[in-house]
């Protein structure tokens, strides 16, 4: 019986087909898959560069292309193309086995042959080659084919290498890119090894054994076990993440077990959430384990739930995975104990803080930070404990007498809330943590997304929900996207992740052009991770290319809004769905006029969280965790970004943290864009834009 496999490249082509053609493709595949001698249906292609590429007829116009290795009975669907394109594909493409790591790879040999004379000319003229310092033996050790080597020797510079990206075999491009970035062959090997789904490279690599190479490449090829699985895969052809994990994602998500808690970091769009969802399925499969998947907001939790439904076909497994945002977890536990608790809104808290600060040499903001970052963070419940506690990380020293004043002021806030029968969510998390610690753990495993912004009280709650042990907490976050001022050292909360972590580097959302522009927004200060170590974005990259971000300056807000309306109209005219367009700004002062302007122009808008087919508009904080095809970030002028920054003289540490938070916020907003990013300002631009332009 023939074994059917499907290449990652098949899905995007299939997704684009009209429904009628898709049906014909489904029928052709089903017939092909059922047939015992599948090879009989395949047609040879005259002039095919790789004779193992065959075609399958879908109808008069469409052709499926199939890789049919000489040995065995495995057939891999590669893509589906119109007749002429299909023949062109077959005339150029060659499949090989990477000699260093044994995975399946392909390259466009036809195009490489075509551009070779131009490369030769260029390299003669420039008299400089990008890889002249790297001996052949090192290139070969990194998996560069002897057949590709002559081309590699001609490449004059990094820009030319990038032009060749889609013509070269991917693992070889990864090796070359690493060397071009100045890495030693040993460092480049680490990058190449990240393209393997196993920890060690295979001992023997047979260059002709494509089937074994396919089995080693689950990021590119899925083996289909019967019609049910085929239907499941084809039902959501846009959602490649369900089926094809990057080897690094796969190694993390599908590892049998971790001895304790584990942390996954990675820049925006590297698939941390995807990895967390696969981990949830892995943990809930088979042994009846109860898994909690939790994140920051209700909306993000709803999105996770929807993705989980796409990922997990088995209802029994799905039922064992609970997806809830962290505040709801806390609310539920407290409500079960003492009835529904009252929640204090931010205005109420602000008013109480302001009145508590009256007559004191401390601002409401100072009291708020002291309460959040010292008292609630350390769960301090008495004046004596506060007088002797450590205030590490706070920028202003307080004498005993001053601490007493501050303590009393904060007690007035706590008392005011308690009179109203209300708590903040951080207080609630603290109460829930204490309650949960008194009962048996509710879950076998807890998975946390967007972990960088959780408060210590929320971590205490998570700690209490699962017993310490193997696979207790799987923590996913990015310290470069910290947009609330919560800095947590997990080791102080009984969660040990030091030395237990992995970092994802390949961005699946945003183009190289947008990332290259946005990463410098973060500035040069290293981000501090949850394990107290510094986190870098070293090696963070995107294989996708697109338009460079557009940054526009205007004399006044009217002109800025008029241009924004034209930009949104242009996106809509290009066929972008309204719900795939987001417009964001630092505050309501910026986005309220945006809503008005779009409305006047007859463009319907909704909130960032709306599921309606409308252009989404909201503040930068609301952009966390979301993604859109096109994003406009407006009002990026110096009065708006940074904003709400503590004065250096009042508290130098808070000042630095606040500035970094503002950088992260702008970075988060910009990296939500998949295809197009548009940034505008009036007057003087935000100082952060200067780093991006540089
Ligand atoms: N293996 C994959 N194959 C295809 N698409 C992927 C893969 N991994 C992630 N993606 C896609 O990349 C995008 C970003 O993924 P995800 O949201 O998991 O990243 P993230 O690291 O959590 O991002 P952020 O930190 O910015 O919120 C999503 O559209 C996701 O579907």
Automatic annotation (TrEMBL):
It comes from the Bacteria. It catalyses: Couples ATP hydrolysis with the unwinding of duplex DNA by translocating in the 3'-5' direction; ATP + H2O = ADP + phosphate + H(+). ATP binds at residues 266-273. Gene3D superfamilies: P-loop containing nucleotide triphosphate hydrolases. Residues 245-511 form the UvrD-like helicase ATP-binding domain. The keyword RNA-binding does not apply. Keywords: ATP-binding, Helicase, Hydrolase, Isomerase, Nucleotide-binding. One of its GO terms (molecular function) is helicase activity. It is an enzyme of class 5 (isomerase). SUPFAM superfamilies: P-loop containing nucleoside triphosphate hydrolases. InterPro entries: DNA_helicase_UvrD-like_C (IPR014017), DNA_helicase_UvrD/REP (IPR000212), P-loop_NTPase (IPR027417), UvrD-like_ATP-bd (IPR014016). PROSITE patterns: UVRD_HELICASE_ATP_BIND. Its EC number is 5.6.2.4. This is DNA 3'-5' helicase. It comes from Actinomadura miaoliensis.
